Automatic annotation (TrEMBL):
Subcellular location: Cytoplasm, Cytosol
Keyword check for Repeat: yes
Positions of region (Disordered): 336-367, 657-677, 977-1001
InterPro entries in alphabetical order: EF-hand-dom_pair, GRAM, PH-like_dom_sf, Rab-GAP-TBC_dom, Rab-GAP_TBC_sf, TBC1D8B_PH-GRAM1, TBC1D8B_PH-GRAM2
Organism of this sequence: Bubo bubo (Eurasian eagle-owl)
SUPFAM superfamilies for the chain: EF-hand, Ypt/Rab-GAP domain of gyp1p
Protein name (record): TBC1 domain family member 8B
Record has Ion transport as a keyword: no
Length: 1052
């Protein structure tokens, strides 16, 4: 028995419940503090002592189970996991393919009362189950429906996780390890969003491509690896293997800095945690020796080719670490060493190879010759003999950097400290800019491991003609047109090669506006191949998802920027009634790194800071710009006035230390003409942004990015929905609310087919860059499921055939997919004539096809394979547009929209006639529709009367057309109505009779009916009119479908 215990007693009860125990006063005090912060504050919401006791019991049992589950977390006790998996499957009834990742004990807040239960995290759903005091709570939320996921706290809830889904807020609290839980929820939500909404960046992600392979440990390690590679600017493929707390000896400061050593496959990195801002990146390709240090200090010494030795001390298991690192270096040093040499030689030798080329290939080869000099060195060479005051300052800057290199090392393994950042803030010297951009961005590492890649890419992409290359050609001469480098073929050709090569390398991005402006600046200071790798670093690592069709990354960072404005500039947010102003005005800041709004000589200083500090530098500068103009912005009456204030400010920004000649500087002439506006030096502005907002942490920015990504994507989805509903509402007669619910069901059906199918064809066809209506489409199988749930004719015996014919009718492009507009049209929401016209069109080509199940035992039901087979019988697929990766045919879409505009209401006289076999099937369908109706007997008699009348009308019409030709077999024709089965007859025998009768009739002249004839005949039968004009409550169908959609998918 533990010497210290905490007990719980209900007043007026003799029973004491053991809540916690400890072997020391310190241990039991820790338990007491946890109870005070996490449980006791919550007890005030309960009305009775019994409720408090029940809640505390459930909470403590859950914590005990959670602690016991710790072994499962380490995958050492699969029995616990198997038990949790069985509960998960039993409670929620999801398909077997739904993979449970992990589960936690927690409380779910229903109003102001917490319900103790279990939170289950699976690949596609967040689920919660609680059963206490006879009350069951079951909650299932799809990850793709979550718009907000954050950690919050308030008076009652010390720390909780807030989930917002489809406008509803859900709160979960009292986790044993809330940070771990939140990290996994964040990973799963972002995984689902990327997989379902943003396939451009997901397709090449082999790790998460298969939902069945996702594990808790895998998600956690992936999150840590992503943070590691992003922080140190390493290739995305790097995986964090080990983390060691240790000290690193800083020779130039003569002290040990405390931090973490992080080791991946090809890099050893260190980041201090004591505020010294010291970091080091050591590629294993540079390591020449790993030795043990002083055993008393548990030291590890690493020597590099740059004659620098890094001494780490207080490393746990340092002997094992030395052995591992030696093994890594022996395995990788020789090939990596060769790669480095090849990379160095490729940049110098490749031009010689191409110099010999023109004699064989003529002038055409000039566009493939890779440039070996930065354009700035060609167009603005420095005059070493005639140094003016600005050039002297430039030389002093260079000297400062050279001193830094001597002290802290030169190259990829240099010490990066606060002094490094201070020098970057002052502006990198022109001569060192390209080299340091390459170093700080991490592009130097990718380039070293891919020697000759760019030259090969230029060869492959030369002469290609795509939508991207067309756009590149259009924008080439819009890229810094005032700079001499881009007024000549040399600069234009280099820009074309880099952009075309990148579009060839990454067709998911291809080319996006703003890439030309950024690449132009890169080419000024970096060699052509270096500029290419810098562009890769920016587009694929530093500004993820910026340069795709929906610029999601830029929108996410704008949302982060708005959040920071609310925190740091509250008076500005109070004045601005609409925060979207900041989004509209700052988009170009993020997309072009301020290059498009600042003079070039000032913008390059911003790019310096961006390559060193990442997006944090742009956010800080944006805040500084708004604060600098705060007073003027607060007096603005509208957005246009505020934009004018900011534009004048940017025109006044100068760089007094820029060594560029006045002819090139964009700010010099402008500042002279606008002398009334005070000049602002870019160095002072950047320094002020660092001083005022430098406390913004990288980790906080990444957390805000992750949080706002869900919100941005759901906002884009809401915009898509609004546009689709606006278009569709003009053609259907549903109420706005019902139409929105139908859209959600339609979209949900699209996603349900993607949840458990890695290679879902529907997911492959989803492309957010397509017109709104075409973004979500469903196939015949999905359409059948929705028809069974929503159609008022779903009770019909041949409902599968009806669904198939309806789908074929709507599939106008014959690509076996239909959009929401086509789906909504099929929900039979019209007058008697509209419904009858739809039924008529279902029984004539192109919709109608003979359907016969291969399994007679199933009756009229069709298997999935049969359904897909019959839906594809429309001949050749007419793919007028290539979806996904292919080039979008803009002209085809313009023609389609033009046709839509010119489309007139369909005239019933334009409908083709229905032949005899189609009419027999039409009659059978009517018979099936009427089955079970209260007026069933009347309707059956009406069918017989109408069919008899129609056949007599046809007989008379044929006699009038050819009076000399007697019609043979009138008795046979008039007997056809008798083939329609009476109530109680076997349908199979009627089908045989009808089939043989139709066979005999083919020997005679074909007879057929026009729609007007059928309409006129049916209008004479009141029972028909009452049946088709009977109102159907679509709301009831929708509510039922929402509850049954997931179960229907499971059955399928």
């Amino acid at each position: 028995v533990a010497p210290f215990r905490i007990l719980h007693q209900t007043p007026d009860s003799q029973v004491y419940w053991s809540i916690a125990c400890g072997s020391s006063r310190e241990e039991i005090t820790e338990h007491w503090d946890w109870l005070e912060h996490n449980v006791m504050k919550t007890l005030s919401v309960f009305d009775s002592n019994e409720d408090i006791t029940s809640f505390v019991q459930g909470k403590i049992r859950g914590l005990i189970a959670e602690e016991g589950k710790g072994s499962f977390v380490k995958e050492e006790d699969p029995e616990k996991f198997r038990e949790g998996l069985m509960k998960f499957e039993k409670c929620f009834g999801l398909p077997e393919q739904e993979k449970l990742v992990t589960y936690y004990s927690c409380s779910y807040w229903k109003g102001r009362v917490p319900c103790q239960g279990w939170l289950y995290l699976s690949t596609n759903f967040l689920s919660f189950y609680s059963f206490l005091l006879g009350a069951e709570i079951k909650l299932i939320i799809s990850w793709d429906e979550i718009s907000k996921l954050e950690k919050t706290s308030n008076v009652i809830l010390t720390e909780s996780i807030h989930v917002c889904s489809r406008g509803e807020d859900h709160y979960f609290s009292m986790f044993l390890h809330i940070s771990e839980t939140f990290l996994l929820m964040e990973q799963l939500a972002n995984y689902a969003v990327r997989r379902l909404f943003d396939k451009e960046t997901f397709e090449n992600d082999l790790v998460l491509h298969d939902p069945l392979q996702i594990t808790k440990r895998g998600l956690e390690s992936r999150a840590h690896s992503e943070q590691f590679s992003a922080f140190f600017r390493l290739p995305k493929e790097e995986t964090l293997k080990e983390v060691h707390e240790c000290f690193l000896w800083v020779p130039f400061s003569h002290y040990n800095t405390h931090g973490k050593m992080c080791i991946s496959e090809n890099y050893i990195c260190f980041a201090s945690q004591d505020g010294s801002l010291c970091s080091v990146i050591i590629p294993l390709r540079e390591v020449i020796g790993v030795d043990k240090g002083d055993p008393a200090n548990r030291g590890v010494s690493i020597s590099t080719k740059g004659k620098t030795a890094f001494r780490f001390t207080e490393v746990r298991d340092f002997e094992q670490l030395v052995a591992k690192l030696r093994m890594k270096c022996n395995a990788t040093s020789s090939p990596q060493h060769i790669n480095t040499e090849v990379a160095a030689s490729s940049t110098s030798d490749s031009p010689k190879d191409f110099d010999a080329g023109p004699s064989k290939m003529g002038q055409r080869d000039n566009s493939k010759t890779v440039g070996t000099e930065a354009l700035m060195t060609v167009y603005h060479p420095q005059d070493a003999e005639n140094l003016d005051s600005k050039m002297l300052k430039e030389k002093m800057k260079e000297q400062s950097w050279n001193i830094l290199f001597v002290e802290r090392g030169h190259g990829v393994s240099m010490f990066r400290t606060k002094k490094t950042r201070d020098l970057v803030v002052r502006g990198i010297p022109e001569a060192l800019r390209g080299e340091l951009w390459l170093l700080f961005s991490g592009a130097v590492n990718v380039m070293a491991s891919n020697p000759g890649y760019y030259t090969e890419l230029v060869e492959k992409s030369f002469g290609t003609c795509t939508l991207a290359t067309d756009e590149i050609e259009r924008d080439l001469r819009r890229s810094l047109p005032e700079h001499p480098a881009f007024q000549s073929d040399t600069g234009i050709s280099a820009l074309r090669r880099v952009l075309t090569a990148y579009a060839y390398r990454n067709p998911q991005i291809g080319y996006c506006q703003a890439m030309n402006i950024l690449t132009s600046v890169l080419l000024l200071y970096a060699k052509e191949e270096e500029a290419f790798w810098l562009l890769v670093a920016v587009c694929e690592r530093m500004l993820p998802d910026y340069f795709n069709r929906r610029i999601i990354g830029a929108l996410v960072d704008q949302a982060v920027f708005e959040e920071l404005i609310r925190v740091h500039l509250p008076q500005l947010t109070d004045h601005m009634s609409d925060m979207t102003f900041f989004s509209s005005v700052s988009l170009s800041w993020f997309l072009t790194l301020f290059i498009s709004v600042l003079p070039i000589e000032s913008a390059v200083n911003v790019v310096d800071c961006f390559f060193y500090d990442g997006i944090k530098a742009i956010l800080q500068l944006g805040l500084a710009v708004l604060e600098y103009n705060m007073e003027k912005l607060l007096t603005c009456k509208d957005d246009a006035e505020a934009v004018t204030v900011l534009n004048r400010f940017f025109d006044s920004v100068t760089n007094k230390d820029s060594p560029l000649p006045p002819a090139v500087q964009q700010g010099s002439s402008l500042s002279d003409t606008k002398s009334d506006h005070p000049k602002v030096d870019i160095t002072d502005l950047i320094r002020e942004s660092n001083e005022r907002y430098g406390d913004i942490q990288y980790e906080d920015v990444e957390s805000m990015r992750c949080r706002n990504r869900l919100y941005v994507i759901q906002t884009l989805e809401a915009t898509t929905k609004q546009n689709v509903l606006r278009v569709v509402s003009q053609d259907v007669k549903f109420s706005p609310g019902d139409l929105e619910e139908l859209y959600e069901l339609f979209k949900k059906e699209h996603f349900l087919s993607c949840y458990w199918n890695v290679n879902s064809p529907v997911l492959q066809h989803h492309d957010a860059s397509l017109p709104y209506l075409e973004q979500y489409r469903i196939d015949c199988q999905q359409f059948r499921v929705l028809c069974h749930l929503l159609s008022p004719w779903s009770h019909c015996a041949n409902r599968d055939s009806l669904a198939l014919w309806t789908f074929r009718l709507m599939d106008e492009s014959s690509d076996c997919l239909i959009n929401f507009k086509q789906f909504a049209y099929t929900m039979y929401n019209g007058s008697f004539t509209d419904k009858l016209k739809l039924l008529f069109k279902l029984h004539i080509p192109p919709a109608f096809t003979e359907v016969e199940s291969l399994s007679p035992s199933k009756g009229a039901d069709l298997s999935k394979e049969e359904l897909i087979h019959f839906s594809q019988l429309s001949g050749k697929l007419q793919n007028v547009r290539l979806l996904g990766k292919g080039k979008v045919d803009i002209q085809a879409y313009l023609k389609q929209w033009q046709d839509e505009l010119l489309k007139k209401e369909e005239n019933i006289k334009d409908l083709p006639r229905m032949n005899q076999s189609q009419f027999i099937q039409f009659s059978k369908t009517l018979y099936n529709l009427f089955h079970g109706d209260p007026e069933e007997e009347l309707l059956y008699r009406a069918i017989a009367v109408v069919t008899s009348l129609l056949l007599k009308m046809e007989e008379v019409g044929r006699r009038l057309q050819s009076p000399t030709s007697p019609v043979k077999g009138p008795v046979a024709i008039t007997e056809v109505p008798a083939e329609i089965p009476r109530k109680g007859q076997e349908e199979s025998s009627s089908e045989q009779t009808e089939g043989s009768r139709a066979q005999s009739l083919r020997g005679n002249h074909e007879w057929s009916f026009a729609f007007e004839q059928i309409l006129a005949s049916l209008l004479n039968e009141p029972a028909f009119v009452r049946f088709f004009e009977k109102p159907h409550d679509i709301k009831v169908k929708i509510e039922s479908a929402k509850n049954l959609q997931l179960k229907a998918r499971i059955r399928v």
